[in-house]
UniProtKB/TrEMBL annotation:
<dbReference type="InterPro" id="IPR036097">
    <property type="entry name" value="HisK_dim/P_sf"/>
</dbReference>
<protein>
    <recommendedName>
        <fullName>histidine kinase</fullName>
        <ecNumber>2.7.13.3</ecNumber>
    </recommendedName>
</protein>
<dbReference type="Pfam" id="PF02518">
    <property type="entry name" value="HATPase_c"/>
</dbReference>
<dbReference type="InterPro" id="IPR005467">
    <property type="entry name" value="His_kinase_dom"/>
</dbReference>
<keyword id="KW-0418">Kinase</keyword>
<dbReference type="InterPro" id="IPR003661">
    <property type="entry name" value="HisK_dim/P_dom"/>
</dbReference>
<dbReference type="InterPro" id="IPR006189">
    <property type="entry name" value="CHASE_dom"/>
</dbReference>
<feature type="domain" description="CHASE">
    <location>
        <begin position="77"/>
        <end position="244"/>
    </location>
</feature>
<keyword id="KW-0812">Transmembrane</keyword>
<keyword id="KW-0597">Phosphoprotein</keyword>
<dbReference type="InterPro" id="IPR042240">
    <property type="entry name" value="CHASE_sf"/>
</dbReference>
<keyword id="KW-0547">Nucleotide-binding</keyword>
<keyword id="KW-0067">ATP-binding</keyword>
<dbReference type="Pfam" id="PF00512">
    <property type="entry name" value="HisKA"/>
</dbReference>
<dbReference type="InterPro" id="IPR004358">
    <property type="entry name" value="Sig_transdc_His_kin-like_C"/>
</dbReference>
<feature type="transmembrane region" description="Helical">
    <location>
        <begin position="312"/>
        <end position="333"/>
    </location>
</feature>
<dbReference type="GO" id="GO:0000155">
    <property type="term" value="F:phosphorelay sensor kinase activity"/>
</dbReference>
Amino acid sequence: MMPDLKKYKNLISFYGWLTLLIGLGITGMISYYIYSKNYHEDQMRFEYEADEIWKRIQFRMDRYEGALIQARAFFLSSDNVSRTEFHRYFEKTKLTERYPGIQALGLAVRIKKDDLKSHVKNIRKELPHYTVWPEDHRNEYYSILYIEPMDWRNQRAIGYDMYSEPVRHEAMKKAMLSGLPTVSGMVTLIQEAGSRQQPGFNLYVPYYKENVPLKTPTERANALIGFIYAPFRANDLFTSILSESKLNIDVEIFENGEMKAENLIFDFDGKPNFIHSEKVNKFRIVKHVTLNGHDFILHFVPLPSFRTTSDLAYPSMAAIIGLVISFLIFRIFMLTKKTQDVLQEAINARDEFFSIASHELKTPLTSLKLQAQLMKRTLDKNPPNFREKIFNLSDQSEKQTQRLERLVDDMLDISRIRTGRLTIQTERFNLCDMVTDVVGRMKEQFSVIPGGAPQTNYISCENAVGEWDKMRLEQVVTNLLSNAIKYGSEKEISIEVQATSDRVYIKVKDNGIGIPLEFRNKIFERFERASGTAKSITGLGLGLYISEQIVRSHGGRIWVESEVGKGSTFTVELPTIAG
Ligand code: ADP
């Protein structure tokens, strides 16, 4: 039975740890799975949003391109479009209202060197201060002739030859030769004034003569009349495109093929994330794009708002739930193991009891046997003092029989307690008298103590009258006194009875070995004996258990105060009337 229990306990412990380990493993795996799934989803969402931004920019530029091509068609539809007609056309398109970010819509015409004078003279009829500038000598000139809206900013651009400035020149030439809408590099727009200047660019749509071949770059260069063009302020344009809906990711736009501060033309959140993006951001996209013939770099990183919509809290939640469940299961295993421990302890105590009990029963039996043999021999020999000898031997036998009787009585009491048959029969008596009687009866046993019978101290004995089971309380006092003798190291013993109006106290004090703290409550349990010095002293570990049951069935309490090596004081508290 015992080895099995031990094996069972070890198994429980093993499975407990195993479950914990598996639980932690599964928790880790689930958390990691959720984390990587979320990470993947976040990344996809990030890529999707970055792509959306790029699409929105393209879509808007397509619209502008469309608007410019439409304006070109307007110019082609008539031989001579007047300034007023163009103004009305522009008003009707509502371009600046529908797509804020565009600064103007204009027409730049090509003028051969020889035609310049007549051209200027002609235009001065409607605009007296008109001139083509810068005024230095060139082979051909491109003059901004029409521009809408005709506000003071745009009026500044009239007559300006964009072809004279290298960045614009490059884009115009590209548009002229390819026949395609072309975006220029970053410039400071002519319209730009005041302190809050920002980079801008132009979009050119070439405007050719009709009914001439336009297949080759040369044919196109020869057929060119001018350009329909639109200037944009970069910051205003991109802000207008991106403010259409809430962004969770930041976009920075660069030109000139390199991500550095001087090439930055737009930054959505105004923070230069491109500098340390690798270290700081989990997600990052660098996209090289071409927009109407001009190259840009788009740099995307998540904004703080991107994180709040991501599901990074779930893995930690899963981890916490997993940990709690794993530890709960582990705890259940350990509690089962603890129950097994308690069971084991009980079995150990019972086994020890059997060994002590058989020893306790064997000692008086051996003496009895010896005494019977001695008696037989004495009777055989018939010595002169034979009566005296036989008397002594039967006296000793009687004592051993009494000892045996006490042991059997104790064991009977235990079975009575177990089956609930320990009943008390009350009668009225004075506790002081009862204690005096017991002390008197035990006189002989006190002979080992130098002072003999214990010191008695009775306080208020007139109140010590009550209703209790006399026999049972005698058993308790006898037990406490014989323990005081057994464990009292042959030192002085005292007993005190103290009575109040409704309670009585019996205190038995010795100056013996004392009881270690850890045993103080255990000694009142069945078969329990304080280990150590008590081992050498005979006893079944039943006395205090029975005493406590008796006191309890009177509605009272018993407890001990003790100091190891100095002694113990057992106190019985009883209500005046048992119940
Ligand atoms: P027993 O004395 O037969 O062992 P008890 O139930 O009377 O059984 O006592 C239980 C245990 O309590 C004892 O084995 C002993 O270790 C301890 N004990 C009881 N009384 C005293 C005492 N006065 N001083 C020290 N230890 C005591």
